[in-house]
């Protein structure tokens, strides 16, 4: 049986694979990054999902002249080990001299645009980057990669470390609606102290989970309603049903054992409220 490679996938989708093409593997970590000389919060996965232009700005800025004489780059988001997921074809349109002069960081900047026509494969095609994972940019004609899976469409394939989880309501709801395995396995493995942040007011709600379904067992209520039956959150959503979608974010402050008692979880929850300050935790009624 013939091996299915990324070049065959691209050719099938209509890309001229005789062009000068590089494969690029971005890490989905929260290492400090810069865009246009300024610190950029988040990581390539977050930007790809929530702010495509920021993702393009990130990958079109390089410390070295890595995309010289490149016609297209095929971008991937790195997952566990050497696995990588395709997130688009981008055409390189030469140097962006105006941006380089304006930012003046000494880096190389490229004009780059998203190429349409690859939706059938974006976010679905999985490759093994191989032993050369340290080399995150490679020429396609020298390093064609085997396609090891073509998965169901979806943008919630990366589940970060617990302390890096930061979910807006739309993503939280989608994870539970689609019952995404990687998230379900992660969130049922432990309980936690969590915080809901209101980006509009800066107020916080600190809560705890203490059930046999772990974080998943509690957050499914939030995914369903946006308020999880918390009194103050219910009051806010009665006034504006879209408030959770527009303003709330769920994060984890501390991981707790799956078998923790309610009393112990609430005790640690109270410690966190005191640490953060009762003035900040205005969304709590206790």
Can you describe this structure?
With 286 residues, this protein is an alpha+beta fold. Helices cover 30% and strands 27% of the residues. It is built from ten helices and 14 strands. The protein has helices at 6-12, 44-50, 52-59, 97-103, 169-177, 181-187, 214-225, 231-239, 243-247, 262-276, and strands at residues 21-26, 33-35, 38-40, 61-62, 72-78, 83-95, 108-114, 125-128, 137-139, 147-150, 166-168, 191-198, 204-208, 248-256. Strands 1, 4, 5, 6, 7, 8, 9 and 10 form an eight-stranded mixed beta sheet that branches. A four-stranded antiparallel beta sheet has the order 11-14-12-13. A two-stranded antiparallel sheet has the order 2-3. Strand 5 and strand 6 (83-95) form a beta hairpin. The radius of gyration is 22 Å and the shape is elongated. 30% of the residues are buried.
Summarize the structure.
This protein has 286 residues and is of the alpha+beta class. The protein has ten helices and 14 strands.
Q: What is the strand content?
A: 25-35%
Strand element count: 14
Order of helices and strands: HEEEHHEEEHEEEEEHHEEHHHEH
Largest sheet: 8 strands, mixed
The number of helical elements comes to 10
Distance between the termini: 64 Å
- Structural class by SSE content: alpha+beta
What would the principal axes of the Cα set say about the shape? elongated
Instruction: State mean pLDDT (0 to 100 scale).
Output: 92
Q: Which consecutive residue ranges, at least 5 long each, have pLDDT under 50?
A: none
* Amount of helix: 25-40%
Radius of gyration: 22 Å
